[in-house]
Amino acid sequence: MIRSMTDTAEQSTEQSAQERLRERRSVAHRTAERVLSRAGFRRTLREQLALLQDAAPRVYDLDEPGDIYGNRVVEALEERVATLLGTESAAFFPTGTMAQQIALRCWAGRTGNPTVALHALAHPEVHERDAFSLVSGLHPVRVTSEPRPPTADEVRDVAEPFGALMLELPLRDAGFLLPSWEELTEVVEAARERDAVVHFDGARLWESTVHFGRPLDEIAGLADSVYVSFYKSLDGIGGAALAGPKTLVEEAKTWRHRYGGMVFQQFPTVLSALVGLERELPRLPEYVAHARVVAAALREGFADAGVPWTRVHPEEPHTHEFQVWLPYDTDVLGEAAVRQAEGTGTLLFGAPWDRGGPGLGVTEVTVRADGLMWTAGDVKAAVADFVARVTEVTAEVSR
């Protein structure tokens, strides 16, 4: 009983420390003079409203009536997405979780098979609390657990029939990885050989054009349906779209209503999505190119600082996001990152550090407009300062 009470107290103390660190990191994001990425959701409400008011007139006539249950400005966004992705139709959804569940249950009804083949690291398997099976009656089966995109042979070797293959492009939890164009076409063909449809989880599909060397409509054209997000890369308030054949999209709209996704008015979110398509989409290739500069500088900076082992993954980022692995405890890394921002106004690592193994931390790095101002020399200087702070925090912990 005494041990249980002690354990509970220790857990409460640890949780409080983590909450304090999260709050300090949030403040650091808002106040730092130099960041690699300053996502819109970190702005104040006043700042977000001001930016939307400034940008929205450039993407839609604000003298038009507002939307009601998915018409007007919502339809304009849907048409824009369908055009960009080269599909017959598209439907706006409040969340990607809802959009993908509905898409795959619609396909299950058409194929007669509720089994969905997907990667073990795919978003529905890791981040959605078994929603596929508990909410939508789908049966997920894992193609592979390896931290890389699935191969055509693995798709062919799935031990049971499946009605749909879901591919996350890029595979975020494996390091924002994309297959080569040849590998992707082979995987799609392998699914076709098994009479399965192909659905792309394209939450971050927008920035995949550089790696594939293909336009969006050609990439999306490989799949039977595609989901895209408006806030992950386009810096919108939220929202998602499902794109594909008109008959599928019309059926999905029916299910959208049943799932509670028929929102009365959605114009702030939709306008922010249109702004993102106008402002951020054309810049994504530039972000991807500079992410490769930043990744190389990080790798060189840690080597120069004498860190015994580091990993920038992938070595050449496939998108404008990638992972950094360091041989230190996550609490040490998180504290050092925040101290650097508090002490210098430079926030090199703004995302949380997760445990990658004993004494090993991993974080995600995103390069957006703010990051374009960083030279390779700026990155290396920030790395040297960060490593010094890691050493400082490590010494404090060991005392």
Domains (count): 2
Number of helical regions: 15
- Going by CATH, what is the homologous superfamily of the largest domain? Type I PLP-dependent aspartate aminotransferase-like (Major domain)
Oligomer status: single chain
Strand content of the residues, in percent?
5-15%
Radius of gyration: 22 Å
CATH architecture of the largest domain: 3-Layer(aba) Sandwich
Instruction: Estimate the helix proportion, in percent.
Output: 40-55%
Strand order of the largest sheet: 2-8-7-6-5-3-4
Categorize the overall geometry.
Answer: globular
GO molecular function: L-allo-threonine aldolase activity
Biased composition (Basic and acidic residues): 17-26
GO cellular component, one term: cytosol
Organism: Streptomyces aurantiogriseus
Labels describing this entry:
about 400 residues; alpha/beta; PyrdxlP-dep_Trfase_major; 4-stranded antiparallel β-sheet; Aspartate Aminotransferase, domain 2; 7-stranded mixed β-sheet; Aspartate Aminotransferase, domain 1; 13 strands; about 50% helix; 2 domains
Descriptive overview:
This protein has 399 residues and is an alpha/beta fold. It folds into two domains: 17-39 and 283-398, Aspartate Aminotransferase, domain 1, CATH 3.90.1150; 67-264, Type I PLP-dependent aspartate aminotransferase-like (Major domain) (Aspartate Aminotransferase, domain 2, 3-Layer(aba) Sandwich). It contains 15 helices and 13 strands. It has helices spanning 2-31, 45-55, 73-85, 96-111, 123-127, 131-136, 152-156, 181-193, 209-212, 216-220, 246-258, 267-279, 284-304, 330-344, 376-398, and strands at residues 34-35, 89-93, 115-118, 139-142, 164-168, 197-202, 225-229, 240-244, 311-313, 321-326, 346-347, 354-357, 360-366. The strands form three sheets. A seven-stranded mixed β-sheet has the order 2-8-7-6-5-3-4, with helices on both faces. The longest helix has 30 residues, at 2-31. The protein is globular. The protein starts with a helix and ends with a helix. The model has no long low-confidence stretch (mean pLDDT 95). One of its GO terms (biological process) is L-threonine catabolic process. One of its GO terms (molecular function) is L-allo-threonine aldolase activity. Residues 1-26 are annotated as: Disordered.
